[in-house]
């Protein structure tokens, strides 16, 4: 079955990505960066919590405190993703502006 579409492909279409987008070794670098950041922040948060409240208090934290700690750990992980994904995909995070006239010109 062949799809007979007359509309232009979206500039964000995966078929228009560069051939070098999402190389395996870049994906490994992203994974390693995420692991390093999450472990470093986790140890820092736990170290500060143990220093301030003691080991026993940290072992029996209430659910809201645990959720707050998780949020603190997720923020740097999301920042790593936002910084490294454009490099990994070789695409910009900014939306591609297209005008109606530009789309019609592509069809011709």
Topology diagram in text:
Layout: H1 24-53, H2 55-59, H3 63-89, H4 100-107
In whole angstroms, how far apart are the ends? 24 Å
Strand tally is 0
Percentage of helical residues? 55-70%
Which class best fits the helix and strand makeup? Answer: mainly alpha
What does this structure look like?
This protein is mainly α. The protein is built from 4 helices and no strands. It has a domain at 22-88. It has helices spanning 24-53, 55-59, 63-89, 100-107. Helix 1 (24-53) packs antiparallel against helix 3. The longest helix is centred in the middle third of the chain and has 30 residues, at 24-53. Residues 103-108 have low confidence and may be disordered.
What's this model, at a glance?
With 108 residues, the chain is an all-alpha fold. The protein has a domain at 22-88. It has helices spanning 24-53, 55-59, 63-89, 100-107.
């Amino acid at each position: 079955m062949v799809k007979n579409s007359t509309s232009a492909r979206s500039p964000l279409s995966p078929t228009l990505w560069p051939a070098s987008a999402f190389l395996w070794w870049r994906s490994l670098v992203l994974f390693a960066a995420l692991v390093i950041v999450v472990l470093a922040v986790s140890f820092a948060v736990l170290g500060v919590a143990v220093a301030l409240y003691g080991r026993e208090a940290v072992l029996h934290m209430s659910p809201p405190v645990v959720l707050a700690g998780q949020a603190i750990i997720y923020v740097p992980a999301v920042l790593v993703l936002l910084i490294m994904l454009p490099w990994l995909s070789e695409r910009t995070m900014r939306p591609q502006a297209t005008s109606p006239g530009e789309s019609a010109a592509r069809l011709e």
